[in-house]
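Rotation project, supervised by the postdoc (A.L.). Task for the rotation student: set up a whole-complex structure prediction and record inputs and outputs verbatim in this book. Inputs entered:
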Amino acid sequence: MINSTEFAVLVRDELGLPVAEEELGSAFDELPGWDSVYLLRLLTVIERETGARVSLPDVLEARSLAEVYTLAVRA
Amino acid sequence: MSTLEGASASAGASTVAGASTLLELHRAGELAARYPLVAPLLAELGPDELARAGALLARVPVDEVRRHHPKLPVVKVAITGHGTLSPLVAPLTAELARHGLVLDPVVSPFDSYVFDLTDPGSALYAAGADLVLCVLDPMIVVDELPVPWTLADLEKIVDEKVRLLTGLADRFQATSRRTGRGTLVLNTLPLPRLLAGQLVDYRSRAALGALWRRAATALLGLADDRPSVVVLDLDPILADGTAARDPRLSVYAKAHLAPGLLAAYAREVGHLARLVAGQTRKCLVLDLDGTVWGGILGEDGPDGVEVADTYRGEAFRAFQKVARQIGSQGVLLAVVSKNDPDPVRRILAEHPGLTLRAEDFADVTANWRPKPENLRETARRLNLGTSSFVFVDDSPYERALVRRELPEIAVVDVDDEPASHVERLLADGWFNVREVTADDRARPARYREDVARGDFLDTFDSIEDYLRELGVAVRLEAARASQVGRLSQLTLRTNQFNLTTRRLQPPAVAALLDDPAALVLAIHSADRFGDNGLVGAILARRVRLDGPDAPDGPAGTDGPRRTDGTGGEVLRIENFLLSCRVFSRGIEHACLVALLHHARDTGVREVLGEYVPTAKNGIVGDLYPRYGFTAYPRYGFTAYPRYGFTAAPAVDAAPVAGAPGGAGGTTFRHDLRDIVAAPAHVALTTVFLGEHE
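Outputs recorded:
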């Protein structure tokens, strides 16, 4: 279980994406340098941090990091 | 014992330190500005930490790194293949960064390898990459199977894929032969249980295994007669326990090779990239106590250390065998040990159970001085750079010290479990080369002959007497196709006697041999102690001053000008290389004089030569002036993209002045009026182009 501040840190430190906590809700196409490949790495990182399994199809359908966070918390 | 534990803890802490320093640089936005610091930070990272490092480094724009560090070698890698390939970029970035290289990746659209490699006008060919990775996975076959399928269906698809890949390899080979550029990297297809498990009877499963391996054999064979193609065999990686497939990533994201396998694949490609940049590891330096044998020689004595025949002794013997095996392929072996010298000398000469013996080592150092100091001294004696060393030690203290003092040395961690020594040593392909040449196999013996030459020299009053008695015989001859591997290797390995440090992969050398305007001369030498082999090369080119190949600079102003109205043909020496083992024997003198005479005899008006200074080639800075050339400072050479000269010299041999690609050097000119006399003590034979039988 992680909070959204920790989630934003994961995004910055594990993916290298310069995203502030309040930008998590931005649609992926609004994030500079976004690539869907980051979702695969993010899945690995979330599962490592939370110890729970997250649904990859759901992650691939997410439209923002905030939606991925919701999936991570629900897991 | 307590000191060892303390050192162990601090080595563990430094692993974390490497990862956390990298993270701090990332957070501060300083990775590009501090890129040269990255390689040592990555040296000890485990798989997870390296994966994260790769993700962070892959975010750093190549151009920004270039802007901060114009001399850092950049290797351009095109990535194509089947499936989703962008997950390869991060691990590849990390693996190249481990070698101090910057990855410039060009990723093709999804599943476009057939088009990419078929059409010589494709974006992939246009990118002019140093390495072209065509990443293959078993789904290229599985995806095309009908439902239900039979062995015959599978065989048909597999055969088609082999034919297709053979055609693509041929096309790539033909294109690279023309441009002299690039290496295509293919890989074998893992055989997944996903496929084999679908057949319920053992007979069919075995038949499937057999036809799959036939295809693998055909794929691996593609490299045989195509010098521009490398095929990576993934089986050894899989056999050591790396999963081939992650079902979720494969099914949902079409990323068909699991992250662990991609990381291992990236490690292999890192070593290929290292070769592109001309970084070669030439010497394996071993600690003794705890590394080559069990126990401590100074305490346990020669009969007490475990070298063979006990449980642990067997493990050390296995390690010794592998070290000798590596030594048989052109890698020099050396010892740097904290021991008294006499017991070490005795045990290496006399112990009947040792597999590694005194004669296997090019150099043995046993004393109590700090190891970094001894390693520097070993490098000096062998006439090598420490950046060509790989060092193995079981002491975390010694490893940490060497890493800190000499970060350019690759350090292999072995520990108190000798059964793992071999795996640890072979985990990284430090000594990988494109091919092992006959010269490689003879190298250890030649280094031993060098020791004999040194002793012989001691018996003479003057160097002239010595040279006369040494009986140096040199053969300067037009290179043949069979010498392409060795010639390429000379351009890649030689750092000192290397006038321009232009690195040429085998296809680039092959392209020069095909080029009627190019003159590729191989230098062989021998003396009373033996044959030195192919020790050097002169790469030259005939150009007409008024032709399209005219060098930079307005001809007729600063450049050489025609004065006789016949049109001037100029012989331009693009590089001159000589192995460090045969310096100072008049070989370069004899060859240069012969080349000047040849030029004059064949109607050349003048000979130009260039020197591009690097950190390591100061020894040849005055080569041309010494033999009657005059400096021509304003008449610069340009880079030669047509011939695939790598614009990325090794880190430790990067030009110290001027822009990358060879500018910044000094051009020298010889007008062929007065040619100095050849050295009397060298017996020279020449066979120029067209003179072969």
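Student's summary: The longest helix of chain B spans residues 151-179.
Supervisor addendum: Chain B touches chain A through 20 residues (CB under 8 Å).
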